[in-house]
Amino acid sequence: MKKFFAEFKEFAIKGNMLDLAIGVVIGTSFNAVVTSIVKDIFTPIIGIIIGGRDFSGLAITVGESSITYGVFIQAMINFLITAFCLFLVVKTMNRFKRKKEEEPAPEPEEPKKSDEVLLLEEIRDLLSKK
After folding, report:
1. Beta pairing, strands 60-62 & 65-67
2. pLDDT tens-place string over residues 12-61
3. pTM exceeds 0.90, yes or no
4. Using one digit for the tens of pLDDT, what is the confidence trace for 55-97?
């Protein structure tokens, strides 16, 4: 049992776990923004185009049950917009990554020789002439 908890502690403390938690929080916030964009901007525009309908109100009632297919349509629109936004983010990140990889690394400069090395080379050259 100790091994299990030690393994869990190692997993939970790793930086990957923190990155994942931050990603979930940011994703949740991003979902709220996308939901608002869809609900408050795109749905009314699409509703105007198709005759002023609100998707979330679309339903078929059979007896006491209702099939709210409009909510499903709304969820699909949310998904498509979210997927498109994430695609744009990933595409931009990949472009920056490729651009960074394509940039040639600057050639390292030859190290500047110290005064002692220059003096020793001068002495060596003088001795080789004799």
Report:
1. antiparallel
2. 776 677 777 888 888 888 888 877 887 788 777 877 887 766 677 788 88
3. no
4. 777 888 888 888 888 888 878 877 887 788 778 878 888 888 8
- Write out the two tokens for 128: 């080789």
| 59: its two tokens | 């339903």
* Distances 19 to 8, 23, 24, 49, 63 between C-alpha atoms, Å: 16, 6, 9, 42, 49
- For the purposes of burial, counting CB atoms within 10 Å of the CB of 114, is it exposed (0-12), middle (13-18) or buried (19 or more)? exposed
